[in-house]
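Students often ask why inverse folding is considered easier than folding. One informal answer: many sequences map to the same fold, so there is more than one right answer. In these notes we will look at a single instance of the problem. The structure comes first.
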């Protein structure tokens, strides 16, 4: 490692940095959004590599930041860990541009790059005035075009002009995954993709059905089940207990949004009536986030999001693995340091629970496999009390009390100087002013939360 602390760009030489990376019992990765300080996200990537994780995936978050920039920074600062771009789509990024981009990433991180292609969201594409056509045909065609360019062959897209000739060096093999949930995409995955990437907030029953459909399609096209790798984003939210995490999730606007945009088929596959989603979506569109959160039952959150302690999340990831997900990708709903650290701990716990190789530093010793069963009462009483105390401090805002205490105190000082001080009335006035001030702070907080003005991620949410 160089003196600056940066990792040199990888070459074909021995991975001296990778030699120091721990080996886990089974593969696991994390997913991140293209948001926040690039340097912070890169530091998390280095930490994930140190822990021995399989890969980091960054998805294309509409109207946030560019995921390729984050992946480029990670490629510069790591030596071993896999880097996944997914899901990109052939509408906002032309297949030729995708081929060029992946070739450059492969130069920074040889043999560590993976690409996932999806269809894009119709609403977001419409907001950008991008035409939306036969998405399955477009993605299938894009896979063929990208692979042709990577092989160094010319590509003819317009009969009126000569074919384009790739000027970049052919990359090492870059696997292409399908990242879309409709049945025709599952069939396409079985036909020609290297893997399947499940979207965030996918229920376990839905994944099981999609897994079976992909393998059925693969068999139809003469492919073996082992030819296709299955991965998926698993959204996670951590707290001192499962119930605390569920309560927190219902107050998080992103969670409400994710639930409100679930498709009818996703709801039905998970065993829920789509009418429930419609009610939640109505409240969400009206910006009545408090009402929307009240409408979300715990069972609905459990079906689509991994909520609880590190042990809870590791157990849920294990359930997806047993359903056929080769590499779970744990993704924090709140991309903040504490939640990312919890994701890393859960990932290591999931990957080592059968082998006992590594014990996460912030959780109890690694249990045996049966210990992964969910304990709904799990959680530390002391941690819960401390969190509530911090929450009360934030809501009450004692630092602002000078605005109410000072005027009453000045009035008391004047009365005292004139010999007209009445101590019971002074104390009553002081307590009354403090009570009004506290009440105003609390009401203001409730109003901001219910109307979505504040996105609560602090202890006061409990």
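Output (designed amino acids):
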């Amino acid at each position: 490692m160089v003196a600056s602390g940066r990792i040199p760009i990888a070459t074909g030489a021995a991975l001296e940095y990778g030699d120091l990376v721990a080996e886990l019992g089974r593969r696991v990765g994390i997913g991140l959004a293209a948001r926040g300080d690039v340097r912070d996200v890169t530091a998390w990537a280095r930490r994930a590599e140190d822990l021995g994780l399989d890969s980091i995936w960054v998805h294309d978050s509409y109207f946030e930041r560019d995921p390729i920039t984050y992946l480029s920074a990670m490629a510069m600062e790591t030596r071993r860990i896999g880097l996944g771009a997914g899901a990109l789509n052939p509408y906002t990024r032309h297949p030729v541009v995708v081929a060029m981009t992946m070739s450059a990433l492969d130069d920074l991180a040889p043999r560590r790059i993976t690409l996932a292609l999806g269809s894009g969201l119709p609403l977001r594409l419409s907001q950008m005035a991008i035409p939306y056509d036969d998405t399955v045909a477009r993605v299938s065609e894009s896979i063929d075009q990208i692979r042709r360019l990577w092989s160094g062959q010319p590509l003819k897209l317009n009969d009126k002009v000569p074919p384009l000739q790739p000027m970049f060096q052919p990359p090492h093999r870059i696997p292409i995954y399908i990242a879309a949930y409709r049945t025709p995409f599952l069939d396409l995955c079985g036909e020609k993709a290297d893997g399947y990437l499940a979207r965030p907030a996918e229920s376990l029953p839905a994944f099981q059905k999609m897994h079976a459909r992909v393998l059925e399609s693969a068999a139809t096209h003469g492919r073996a089940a082992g030819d296709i790798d299955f991965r998926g984003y698993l959204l996670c939210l951590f707290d001192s207990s499962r119930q605390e995490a569920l309560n927190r999730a219902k107050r998080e606007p992103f969670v409400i949004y994710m639930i409100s945009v679930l498709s009818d088929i996703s709801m039905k596959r998970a065993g829920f009536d789509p009418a429930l989603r419609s009610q939640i979506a109505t409240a969400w569109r009206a910006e009545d986030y408090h009402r929307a959160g009240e409408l979300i039952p715990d069972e609905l959150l459990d079906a689509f999001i991994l909520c609880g302690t590190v042990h809870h999340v590791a157990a849920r990831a294990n359930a997806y693995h047993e359903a056929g997900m080769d590499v779970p990708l744990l993704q924090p709903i709140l991309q903040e340091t504490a939640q990312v650290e919890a994701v890393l701990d859960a990932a290591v716990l999931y990957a080592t629970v059968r082998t006992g190789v590594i014990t996460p530093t912030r959780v109890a010793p690694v249990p045996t496999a049966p210990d992964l069963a969910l304990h709904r009462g799990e959680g530390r009483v002391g941690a819960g009390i401390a969190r509530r105390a911090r929450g009360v401090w934030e809501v009450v805002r004692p630092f602002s009390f000078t605005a109410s205490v000072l005027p009453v105190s000045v009035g008391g000082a004047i009365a005292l100087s004139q010999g007209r001080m009445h101590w019971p009335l002074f104390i009553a006035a002081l307590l009354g002013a403090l009570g009004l001030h506290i009440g105003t702070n609390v009401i203001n907080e409730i109003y901001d939360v219910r109307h979505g003005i504040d996105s609560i991620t602090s202890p006061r949410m409990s």
